[in-house]
Batch of 2 targets.
Target 1
Amino acid sequence: MSTPKPVAPFQPQETVPAVYPALTTIFLTGATSGIGLALAQRMLKEGKTVITTARSAEKLKAAQELAPGLVGYMLDMTTGDKVVGSVVDQIIKDYPQLDAVICNAGIQKTLYFNDAANLPDPNSTWKLEIETNITSVLSLIQMLLPHFLAKDSPCAIMTVTSGLAFIPSADYPIYNATKAFIHSYSMTLRHQLRKTNVSVVEIIPPAVQSNLNPEHREAHPERASMYMPLDVYADDVLEKLRGTDGQSFDEITSGFSEAGCGYARAFIRQRFQMLNPSN
Ligand SMILES: NC(=O)c1ccc[n+]([C@@H]2O[C@H](COP(=O)([O-])OP(=O)(O)OC[C@H]3O[C@@H](n4cnc5c(N)ncnc54)[C@H](OP(=O)(O)O)[C@@H]3O)[C@@H](O)[C@H]2O)c1
């Protein structure tokens, strides 16, 4: 495959004040494996309190062995607002100093809609993807916002999207769109909260080694070299979150995801400001 020519000037990001260094207590969903676990390990080592939710006690125990100090609550993020709300209330009661959430839990389904006899079962595929990657994220953020906004210290809402939010892969038609949804929502939430103590940071991974969609990864060993090693990726995210001279980014990108965002950034940010004046 030949290298595509750039279609627009690449636009590096402008920096924003780094919020991560001041954070003390982070609710990080999906820390039982992959990116969430790797981030939790690093954040715990830096002295942060990290709280996660897990669907399986065995997985939680295994994660706690790999990430000593990780606090866990049993919860499937898709069980609905009543159950999720009661666990979130309990977390706030147990950790009133909670000052950040990282909405990292997510799933990815390989889906094809071109064979009428074998269309995906909606409930176990795209409805679950939308519930996990969009609905539960919006609900969690809305549940936590009153707590964050009542504080007089810096707080952060971090979403986890994907380079595929910008350049969709045809193997994951719904997944790409869920991440594009959360990207758009992150931009507008950041704008709406710009005069508050709550910062919105979007973590935008490229392809990274993890347990995401394992069947598809096993079926395509030829793609293995595309995946960034997990430790390399997690170190990069932490370095960018920590920032330099008190400055970081509101979109944390690496590799492919930086390319995807960078070519669109100049145009989109300029037009976003026209549509949404800052004052
Ligand atoms: N890896 C990549 O290439 C890549 C690229 C771009 C974006 N991302 C995003 O990065 C995030 C982390 O994914 P990953 O790659 O680290 O995958 P992963 O290894 O499969 O980890 C996903 C985590 O989310 C949890 N989770 C999923 N559904 C849940 C639910 N209903 N309730 C509670 N927890 C749930 C999983 O818990 P269980 O252990 O119980 O399954 C697991 O801890 C996702 O949002 C993903 O879309 C990943």
Target 2
Amino acid sequence: MKYVLSWILIASISILFLSNCLQPNVYKEISQDQSFIDKIRALYSSGDTSRWPEPQLHKMALANFSEIGHLPKVKYPQDNPYSAEKAALGKTLFYDPRLSVSNQIACASCHDPELGWTDNKTFSFGHDRQLGSRNAMTIMNIAFTQSLFWDGRAESIEQQSQMPIQDHKEMNEHIDLATDKIAKLKGYEILFEKAFGDKTVTKDKIAKAIATFERTLISPQSKFDKFIDGQANLFTDDEVMGMHLFRTKAQCMNCHNSGYFSNNQFENDGTALLGTKQQDLGRYIVTKNPGDVGKFRVPTLREITRTGPWMHNGAFTPLKDVLTFYNGGNPEPPKKRSTVHEGITLVSKKSEMLKPLNLTPKELQQLEAFLGTLSTRTQRFSPPVLPQ
Ligand code: HEC
Ligand code: HEC
């Protein structure tokens, strides 16, 4: 009996030891020596990602992981290929407030090119200045999402484009009435003819044109893209260290990965605030799967410094506060972890990948400096002339 107990003890200690070795150690300290910074600067800007230092990833992240890097080429769907004429029509519709019942609100009201294609508000206001309950996301680079909205409730950009028109708090117009209004404007005939080969206006064509326009909104080369292509001196030491922390100790790359800086998965970031007035069930609203409570789509970090306030509820500003939240392991107060919804008790379970990070104030500042390299300058964007 004594032996059995000792064997059990030895076995459990070994398992504990092994699992600790296999788990990437989030507390692994990173050197701040100049020689180390110079070394990783050379590797990261070598133009060859196979020479980059090994990332530190959580085992749960592996299935959906691909290395950060350039944005890929946009793929247009077979049933809605690109044409310049269709994108031009889409741009016009995107700016046309006559798609709304009040003739006052266009898509561009909440997705403004000068504000990183968002509205820089915590919550957008729409029809009759009603407040929505989620933060407007940027539509830059949405060509690379696999589902749309914070909860992924739209499966394609075409499908998504009709939803704000009909949303009571946004544009509040019936899609058929909106289509009729556009059809009555003589000036649109030529645009539809050029884009689709005939001038009849349908809601399907409106959706396809807007989606084609949106797929053209791709970030130009950022400082990050140029640095990894070989412009070694473009990054400051802090930005180099920030990139390294992002891939290692800070654990960001578990979810924000690929050229799009999102793995396109739904994760619980500890932001559901269940049982409070701000409660948001997130992905659960779409799937009704209790495991999806409080999960949101991992957003892109491209253009991130331009698209605040941050998170689905715009709860964080400045950006530094988001980093402080992650550094604390995304604390979710016990009182805000459960709620009864439609008679069912729902519990929010933050991702196991999120743990306190022990980043020093200097490291937090370096991480923030790196995030800045993912933004590009606001480009001049001339609004279209609206057809009469
Ligand atoms: C009243 C403000 C408002 C208007 C008007 C508006 N949007 Fe949005 N948009 C939002 C908000 C808020 C969200 C996030 C909503 C959510 O996730 O529930 C969003 C999300 C989106 C997304 C999803 C982005 C992503 O990464 O998933 C796209 C695409 C989009 N809007 C396009 C449009 C188009 C096209 C129009 C015009 C037909 C439009 N929006 C009109 C506020 C607005
Ligand atoms: C477990 C997956 C996961 C990890 C790890 C993770 N994030 Fe996130 N991130 C998310 C999700 C999900 C959201 C959206 C949460 C919400 O809206 O409530 C988000 C949102 C953000 C936002 C706000 C984006 C916006 O458009 O509002 C920033 C900035 C951000 N993360 C940065 C980071 C940084 C920096 C790290 C590393 C310290 C990190 N994230 C680690 C999943 C993750």
